[in-house]
# Entry
Amino acid sequence: MNRILLICFLLFVATFPSMAQQPFVDDFTLSGDTYLTEEYCFRLTEERPYASGSIWYKRPVSLAKPFAIELTIMVGCEDEAGADGMVFAFTPQANRLGYVGEGIGFAGLVPSVGIEIDTWCNEHLGDPAEDHLAIMLNGRIGHWANLVGPVVIPNLEDCRRHSLIVRWQPEIQRLSVLIDGVERISAQHDLINQVFGGNDKVYWGMTAATGRYYNYHEVCFDRISLGEPPMNFPQQEDLPSPTRYLASAWSW
# Structure
């Protein structure tokens, strides 16, 4: 009996990484100004005008299955004069980068779903003055075309890392976003049929851009959970406090 239990335990351990795994550097394709800062962490833009970068996971995910993707982001240290933000995006074509500035590297990507993390107020796009989130479709960045949002969030340009978790539940067609362990925005929509023309396979990645005003934008990839995502999401106080502009990977 003990031998059978041991065999069952070893089989469980062997299959666990397929349910929740930490990606490797070689799993990603880099575009634009993106470069590796240290293991699992990438700088998408420097603190300079009209920079842009993107990073894409090389293997597609299926929107027919549940998943959670866990990241750590830093959107700079300049608050009043910092811009423009980042977008977590899904698209059937990998390794893409949209327009700079207010486009945040997402504008012009069709078809696509984008979770905008916007740190600059462009009044002509309907932006609120505060940092905000929105779920956008097909590279359209004006908020009148949003699937949902904008939703005002606490200031992120504080020179700190913030956890970002993107969760998809296909059984109820629900896309939700958590920042620092708190769900901030969600939408229910038939992404497969109404956005991607019946195609359930999409690539995911992060884009970022600056315009006349600028900030550093960095991302660390922590864990990909395929299957029913875990619910013990981290709070901000669980994250390490970095030195200025330093990013490193974390996991639990």
